[in-house]
Amino acid sequence: MKNNQKHNRAVIRRVPLSTIVKAKNGDDTALEKILRHYQGYMLKLSQFELYDASGTVYTCFDEELYQELQFKLVKAILDRFELR
C-alpha cells in the first residue's frame, strides 16, 4: 500500500548570485536585499533571555550585536567574497 502523504520539507530560499555580484560591485539596493534576506536570522541571533528573581523570563534584544552582525555580513560581501 502506498503512502500518499506529502512530506513536509523546508523551502530553502537563497540570495540570487546576480544580487550578490551587484552588491559586491557596490550596488546599495542589492546590499539592502541581502541584509533583508538575513534579517530574521540576525534578529534571532541577537535575542537573549533574562530571568528576574521570581523566575519570570524576559526576551531581550541586543541592538549592538545586531548591528555587528550586519556589519560583518556587509564586510564579508565586499571584502572576502570572490567570484571565479
Written overview of the protein:
- The structure is a single chain.
- By secondary structure, this protein is mostly helical.
- It has one domain (17-80).
- It contains four helices and two strands.
- Helix 1 crosses helix 2 (28-37) and helix 3 crosses helix 4.
Outline of the structure:
This is Helix-turn-helix conjugative transposon-like domain-containing protein. The protein is mainly alpha-helical.
Order of strands across the main sheet: 1-2
How far apart, in Å, are the first and last alpha carbons?
A: 50 Å
Structural domain count:
1
Number of strands: 2
Q: Overall 3D geometry?
A: flat
Order of helices and strands: HHHEEH
Summing up helix and strand content along with how strands pair, one would put the structural category as: mainly alpha
Pfam families: HTH_16
Organism: Butyricicoccus faecihominis
Protein name: Helix-turn-helix conjugative transposon-like domain-containing protein
Domain Helix-turn-helix conjugative transposon-like: 18-79
